[in-house]
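Journal club side-thread
Mid-discussion, someone asked how the predicted structure for our own chain would compare to the paper's figures. Pasting it here so we can look after the session.
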Amino acid sequence: MLRFFIHYGIHFIVPISVGILFFKEHQKRAILILLSAIIIDLDRNEEGGYIADAKWTVRGSVNHFGHTHYRQNQYRALVSFIIDNGNWKINNIEILDARRLY
C-alpha cells in the first residue's frame, strides 16, 4: 500500500511542487509539462532510497537569424531518490535513452 502512495505521489506531488518552487513565472506550463512524465516503476535501492524508471518528453524552440527551430526529445532514465533529514532529494540520474522526436 505504501508503494502505491509513493508511486502516485511522484506522479502528482513532485511535479506540482517543482513547478511551484522553481518556475514561478510559468507555473501552470511547467506543471503540465512535468505531469506529462510517466513513472514506469519504483524500487528500493541499496542506500535505503528509491529508484524510479522514468520517461518524459521535452519540447523547446531556439530563435536565431530570423527563424525558429523546434525540437521535441524523449528521455528515459533511472532516477535515484534518498530521504535526507525527512526531505526527498534526487541522488542520481542515469540517462538510459535519449531520442529526438522532431
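Post-session note: DSSP finds two helices and four strands in the chain.
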